[in-house]
Amino acid sequence: MAYQLKTMKIKGKDYVLVNERIIAFRKLPEYQGFSIETELLHLDEASCVVRATIRNSEGKIVAQGMAQEDRTSSMINKTSYVENCETSAVGRCLGFLG
Description:
alpha+beta; two-stranded antiparallel sheet; 2 helices; 5 strands; 37% strand; flat
């Protein structure tokens, strides 16, 4: 049986949350031995940029995603803009992986 991704409606469209994408990535046999790496490219008091990379079991890069977050863009970012940025980068990377 295939893994069924849970979705939620955001602005009228189905969206798969990043935690669901990570669960699928870890459970699906076609991604066995793959890794997710993140790299902080920029960080200051106002913003950050993170790149996420997925490598296959041979270490070859198969997907990358980047994200940028501003500390003042939302209530959650006031305290967690770095964490939010990393999650966004991983979500984009998994989205590019398919």
